[in-house]
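Propose amino acids for all 264 sites.
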């Protein structure tokens, strides 16, 4: 269990485990700490893993946006005195990482993106007309994964609670609109640091062609596919995800450095 590594300081609730180069993990709209359990357990042997909880349901509504969360991430870097970090983001978290890297390139050594928004994604906010129907919500949650069993009862219950909470739905829709508004297509050619794209071949939220477009538009990106995998590879195939990420970090000379002053 990773609960004992969770800290609350000021405006920040976050996990911190390990030593060395900071590896900052950013979750998606419906994501959380447990989505990255195995990734954290592995990489905290080589890095200082930090995972801030994005204030999706607690931030002022006007700041509940990709830009607002990028500023929140900047403030987190300042709070933790992080000079430079490797960023890992899934879905909305990937989008926040991209926006942050574009605005603060000197603070980002490299990025790992998986099922990232930023170019195109099917918004979940407007796709739940039968919010009160639990079985319908269950099916929708299962569609995020290639293997529906990954959508545990706990996860489905969480989604059901969100889509039946008016304020949470408003915030989710606000984020979905913000993601469309902050399309990164024009900015991607300016993002020069190394990027590892790890994508599920069966991702229905950010389909494979999105990964291909990221690969074309980012100057220094490597793309890796995982078969029989949906929108959250680190949950559905954690060991394959870890292996790809590990090999890529090693190939790029970013493995087990214990040194925050790595150059780009």
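Proposal:
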């Amino acid at each position: 269990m990773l609960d004992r590594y969770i800290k609350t300081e000021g405006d920040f609730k976050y996990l911190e485990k390990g030593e060395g180069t900071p590896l900052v993990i950013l979750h998606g709209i419906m994501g959380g700490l447990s989505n990255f359990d195995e990734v954290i357990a592995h990489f905290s042997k080589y890095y200082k893993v930090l995972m801030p909880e994005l204030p999706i349901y607690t931030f002022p509504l006007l700041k509940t946006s990709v830009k607002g969360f990028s500023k929140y991430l900047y403030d987190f870097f300042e709070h933790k005195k992080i000079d430079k970090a490797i960023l890992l983001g899934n879905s909305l978290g990937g989008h926040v990482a991209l926006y942050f890297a574009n605005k603060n390139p000197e603070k980002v050594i490299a990025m790992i993106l998986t099922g990232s928004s930023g170019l195109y994604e099917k918004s979940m906010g407007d796709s739940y007309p039968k919010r009160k129907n639990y079985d319908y919500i269950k099916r929708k949650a299962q569609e995020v994964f290639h293997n529906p069993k990954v959508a545990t009862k706990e996860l489905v219950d969480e989604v059901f609670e969100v889509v039946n909470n008016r304020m949470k739905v408003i915030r989710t829709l606000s984020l979905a609109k913000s993601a469309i508004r902050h399309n990164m297509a024009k900015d991607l050619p300016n993002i020069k640091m190394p990027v590892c794209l790890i994508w599920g071949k069966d991702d229905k939220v950010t389909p494979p062609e999105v990964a291909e477009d990221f690969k074309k538009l980012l100057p220094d990106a490597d793309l890796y596919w995982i078969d029989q995998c949906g929108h959250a590879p680190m949950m559905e195939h954690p060991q394959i995800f870890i292996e790809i990420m590990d090999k890529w970090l090693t190939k790029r000379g970013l493995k087990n450095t214990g040194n925050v002053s790595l150059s780009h």
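The two ends are 34 Å apart (CA to CA). The chain has one domain: 3-121+182-251.
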